[in-house]
Amino acid sequence: MDPTSRPAVVIDNGTGYTKMGFSGNVEPCFIQPTVVAINEFFLNQSRTSKSNWSAQHSAGVMADLDFFMGDEALAKSRSSNTYNLTHPIRHGQVDNWDAMERYWQQCIFNYLRCDPEGHYFLLTESPLTAPENREYMGEIMFETFNVPGLYIAVNSVLALAAGYTTSKCEMTGVVVDVGDGATHIVPVADGYVIGSSIKSIPIAGKDVTLFIQQLMRERGEKVPPEDSFEVARKVKERYCYTCSDIVKEFNKHDKEPSKYIKQWRGIRPKTGTPYSCDIGYERFLGPEVLFSPEIYSSSDFTTPLPVVIDKCIQSAPIDTRRALYKNIILSGGSTMFKGLHRRLQRDLKKIVDARVLASDARHGGEVKVQPVEVNVVSHPIQRFAVWFGGSVLASTPEFFAASHTKAEYEEYGASVCRTNPVFKGMY
After folding, report:
1. Environment class of residue 383 by beta-carbon count within 10 Å: exposed (0-12), middle (13-18) or buried (19+)?
2. How confident is the model at residue 45 (pLDDT cuts 50, 70, 90)?
3. How many C-beta atoms lie closer than 10 Å to residue 307's C-beta?
4. Residues 230-271: pLDDT tens digits?
5. Where are the transmembrane segments (predicted)?
């Protein structure tokens, strides 16, 4: 059976979570933490047993086989001291290719349960990734998994494809991608990334979690130390929201604590005894890190997210700016806080309106400046917007024509993966 008649496999590898599934679906089949647990015992044995070749070989084979990924890896590392956790992706870039290969192996055979030789693959990469990374990806996919075709897409372009709200696919806009390990603001014009205007900020979902953990620790909440990061992450995902005015929010919490303060109940992992703690100001102070980075002490970065977005659009070509302001797309799990899009739109509108007024004043009212429309698009699927965009694009007939095939790879080598044409047939 021809691989082009089967749905493509779409895998969106993020720093925190990996989304995987088949093209044509609305949601990914599986969402797993991007983490691998490797058995240190066999790994060390394969390195140290120099004298006995067969012992070294069998230890090496066992080290290759004895590993876990995702939720299983986290559970193994908690229950056993022999497994060491490895995060293959850091700040949006693949850091450990051996672990990444093992991770993909489990994704394909254990979760998606498909034959990689019978499906085209769509993988994602973050903006500003070195072309060598694409070559490594192509090498692993074509050599190890023997895939018939591969397309490596920039995740912001896919998020834009997922974010369009009309029947026409609007491929000009700014993607604000706030993931677990990296935040990128990427302007896209007609499906092409404006590389020189990409902005990246060092505050993302993990920093929000660490800040919530720090606030709870400073307040003296009785959370077991080994569980505190996980509790902070769950608090962030379940209870956090973005407020419009931080002072008013403090007053609200102080006036009606019974309404706003939540209770967290958990069980200590080692003793099995229950514990509870209060969740107060961190509900709105966590997401506030994106708008007032100075409150998060461990970072020297102090520019609020709306200012960075404005700078990004201002550095783009002048003829695209109005279209970029009109279509600001949110993407990534850390944009799911309630009220985030409204706060972002309000703050951006203030910056843009102040600039228009200053321009009017400079010209003395002789030249009337047209107001700039600012629109932040929020949609229910933005948590996995990149994956959904990949699913949409991989289900078009142009996808198979734009992908690099095994034959091309064998003829020209891994360098074919350096460039991926945009779907020219669509626009």
Report:
1. buried
2. low
3. 14
4. 889 999 999 999 999 999 999 988 898 888 888 888 888 777
5. none
